[in-house]
UniProtKB/TrEMBL annotation:
<dbReference type="InterPro" id="IPR012340">
    <property type="entry name" value="NA-bd_OB-fold"/>
</dbReference>
<feature type="domain" description="ChsH2 C-terminal OB-fold">
    <location>
        <begin position="55"/>
        <end position="117"/>
    </location>
</feature>
<dbReference type="InterPro" id="IPR052513">
    <property type="entry name" value="Thioester_dehydratase-like"/>
</dbReference>
<dbReference type="Pfam" id="PF01796">
    <property type="entry name" value="OB_ChsH2_C"/>
</dbReference>
<dbReference type="GO" id="GO:0003677">
    <property type="term" value="F:DNA binding"/>
</dbReference>
<feature type="domain" description="ChsH2 rubredoxin-like zinc ribbon">
    <location>
        <begin position="18"/>
        <end position="53"/>
    </location>
</feature>
<keyword id="KW-0238">DNA-binding</keyword>
<dbReference type="Pfam" id="PF12172">
    <property type="entry name" value="zf-ChsH2"/>
</dbReference>
<dbReference type="InterPro" id="IPR022002">
    <property type="entry name" value="ChsH2_Znr"/>
</dbReference>
<dbReference type="InterPro" id="IPR002878">
    <property type="entry name" value="ChsH2_C"/>
</dbReference>
<protein>
    <submittedName>
        <fullName>DNA-binding protein</fullName>
    </submittedName>
</protein>
């Protein structure tokens, strides 16, 4: 991508997620009391209201739950990627995450794994792709 994708500045609660992307690690918070994964980063568990949230490294593998194909780029940096897909991925660990798939358009039920798009400051944007190895 010739231009840089616009991404949010890390907040105090999301900084650990963005730091992990520098190592190409997909992480999410897990609530200690109710043991549920929490996505997007928060201070309070949306399921039980507790504040005991810790970070956990995930496999980055999952199944496409929903797909929306975009034929116009949302940002100039995506102009060379159209058409691309905005997807909801049900991660193997049990959380659902929104992201992109560039390249072949997936269908609901396809297996995918995390891939990384470098950002200008050393962080990596997590996107998804078909598995590199047969599942």
């Amino acid at each position: 991508m010739s231009e840089t994708l616009p991404v949010p500045d890390p907040s105090p609660v999301s900084a650990a997620f963005w730091d992990a992307t520098r190592r190409r690690e997909l992480t999410m918070q897990r609530c200690g009391p109710c043991d549920r994964l929490v996505w997007y980063p928060r201070y309070v568990c949306p399921y039980c209201g507790e504040t005991s949230l810790g970070w956990e490294k995930l496999s980055g593998k999952g199944v496409v739950y929903a797909v929306s194909v975009h034929h116009r780029p949302a940002f100039p940096a995506l102009a060379d990627k159209v058409p691309y897909s905005v997807v909801l991925v049900d991660l193997d660990e049990g959380a659902r995450m929104m992201s992109n798939v560039f390249g072949a358009i997936p269908v609901v039920g396809d297996r995918v794994e995390v891939s990384w798009v470098p950002l200008g400051d050393g962080r990596q944007l997590p996107v998804f792709q078909p598995p590199s190895e047969p599942q």
